[in-house]
Design brief:
By secondary structure, the protein is of the alpha+beta class. It has a single domain, classed as predicted glycosyltransferase like domains (Thrombin, subunit H, Beta Barrel). It has 1 helix and 6 strands, in the order E-E-E-E-E-E-H. The longest helix has 16 residues, at about 90-105. The mean pLDDT is about 90.
Length: about 100
Amino acid sequence: MTSERRRAPRCPLIASAEVVETRTNTRLRARISDVSLVGCYIDTPNSLPAGTEVLVHIAHNEEIFGALGIIAYCHPNMGMGVRFTDVPLDQHEILEKWVAELVRD
């Protein structure tokens, strides 16, 4: 039996995403497959290395969430886990609303 290491439960959510590597301004269009209050999983064959700082924008229900994050881990040719590192208060409110709606459904 493996122990759960996540700080917040993940909720399945398919949504459009844009990931911008902050150092080079490289942009990746992708989609997320799950989200939590502390991060998300981005489905993309073009993963960035773990430790890369990124700006993430997620579009869902006519709202856009944006936050700084860091690539926590990557699965080459599949996707990457992002841990949010700097979420402005107004953006955190959007994220909390989405997660509450997903938990309720």
